[in-house]
Design goal:
alpha/beta, Rossmann fold, binds NADP nicotinamide-adenine-dinucleotide phosphate, 333 residues, ten-stranded mixed beta sheet
Amino acid sequence: MFDNKTILITGGTGSFGKKYTETLLRLYRPKKIIIFSRDELKQFEMQQTYNDSCMRYFIGDVRDKERLNMAMRGVDYVIHAAALKQVPAAEYNPMECIKTNINGAENVIHAALHNQVKKVIALSTDKAASPINLYGATKLASDKLFVAANNISGSQDTQFSVVRYGNVVGSRGSVVPFFKKLIAEQTDHLPITHLEMTRFWITLQQGVDFVLKNFARMSGGEIFIPKIPSIKLTELAKAIAPDIPIKEIGIRPGEKLHEVMCPQDDSYHTFEFEDHFVIGPTIRFYSRSNDFSTNQLGETGKPVEHGFEYNSLTNEDFLNVEQIAQLNESLGI
Ligand SMILES: NC(=O)c1ccc[n+]([C@@H]2O[C@H](COP(=O)([O-])OP(=O)(O)OC[C@H]3O[C@@H](n4cnc5c(N)ncnc54)[C@H](OP(=O)(O)O)[C@@H]3O)[C@@H](O)[C@H]2O)c1
């Protein structure tokens, strides 16, 4: 599907973008892969590894509509991964987070429509489901913009969908590198905000593969959610450093005890497929199908029970200490 196609990745120098690029280059022969992001150093460093002739590096900010318009000329597929994603930074700098995550999303939509891009997938997060922090709220607003964009694409037929998933094991600024740093500094304890805390847990490669697959599945308007395991934070700490005591330090502002990916209130338009869920739009589409029970690959889902919630606490699939340790080892973290 990506052979001889031009793909643009906003936030292409981030953890997701690099893994996506690596996977595209391994599995396909794209015409061009355009990396769109702000920092020239990150682009320079990425070029040292990814320098195939199809690679293009484009300095730009998703807040800059004209630059995005220019970057999307001749593009077939867009993955929108650029975001400000640190919860505390968003709380302290709300307008910066809004400008990148919401205004940036709007600019991506306009540029995609203007350039008749075929398909766009925007990355979202479990924090966008019933959000309690600004990061999550901006990502929910972004999800809504991408879903609604399917109604304004009209005859151009650009399709917009969203992929929502949970914590990526070992990603920049996340808990595993934080624990590793403390251990390297010979900490006498590992801090955990709440001993009961659970999180959804996905590897970067699983996230990338899920996005790749959804380009084939999508009709436009869906929020795709993978079925993935949960972990308890205390089990993670034991898997990383069984001999270091755990200290509870109190829940942080904007932090949930458990995360949700499919909220209860969306249950009446959520479908369960074999390895994922789809939340259909709350709005009606006027010029395309409103049936999200069957996807473009012919896979069929069944409506979930009313009141169903996909929650990291009630998830049927949990990794134990041994499984977490094995996963970390397989990832080299
Ligand atoms: N990591 C997770 O645990 C996780 C979980 C669920 C969902 N997600 C979502 O997945 C996506 C990718 O996350 P990630 O882990 O790859 O993030 P990341 O490693 O922090 O990378 C973010 C990327 O966005 C770029 N960026 C930031 N602001 C930008 C702007 N205004 N204009 C253009 N580019 C900008 C950054 O490069 P520059 O700074 O150079 O611009 C970088 O390339 C995000 O949308 C995030 O919300 C992540």
